Fold:
Amino acid sequence: MSNTTTTAEHQPIIVRRSFWQLAWRELRRAPPTAWFGMIVIALYIFAAVFAPWIAPYSETELVGGAYEPWSAQFLLGTDQLGRDFLSRLIYASRNTIGIAVLTTAISFTLGGLLGLLSAVLGGWVDQILGRGVDVLMAIPQLIFALVLLSIVGASLINLVLIIAVLDSTRVYRLTRAVAMNVVVMDFVEAAKLQGEKIHWIMTREVLPNILPPLTAEFGLRFCFVFLTISALSFLGLGIQPPTADWGSMVKENATLINYGNITPLLPAGAIALLTVAVNFVVDWFLHKTSGLKG
Structure:
């Protein structure tokens, strides 16, 4: 009895070790592009989490004159109001990435839930949801977001909700498409015949079998949401001042380009670098989950 108990107690530890060993083995086989993407993403997350300790100044503190050049005191100079550009660049990683992740999570929750309902229930539910999504997708997303934000106001809550709802249409389409291939399987039909509830079939039977494409799509949707927020901020309807944001930082300091100063290109480069890094990781993940070799 004692030996059996000891074996049972140690079994979860063995399973946990094998999982981490498998994960580390897969990471070691990852191509250089995937490693580059993961390192860049880790650095961005580190900067976002520890921004108050990394940044020399706060994001709103006036520390010098307007447009001061790069120096030992201000490594990247100051902006149009005399705020430290490096500090705002670091704080912007927290604001821009955090809001983009929140918006993407909401859009996936909404679009994924409706997509699963549409695939599992079918019939008039599928028709109503499908036609509503078609209407929303017929209007260009950025233009629609600009119109709605102009009407309801460019507050942070409005920004997150509007982009999340508009982006959820793409998530709905993908979720419904991949779920439709699963709901016709025998094990789903067997669950329905056993009288399982809709939420059980959605979360226990269908969702686990469509997670890989949805996980990869989450990374891609994050990039689109991230770029949309930056574009809206550049146009003045995204994250509002004095909150630091990469899109608005490009707009506020764009005049420096006329004098050969590359400072406004730094937040633009931060946007591009993160987008490329996420796409590298998503491409590798898709390659692994697709079962392709080589």
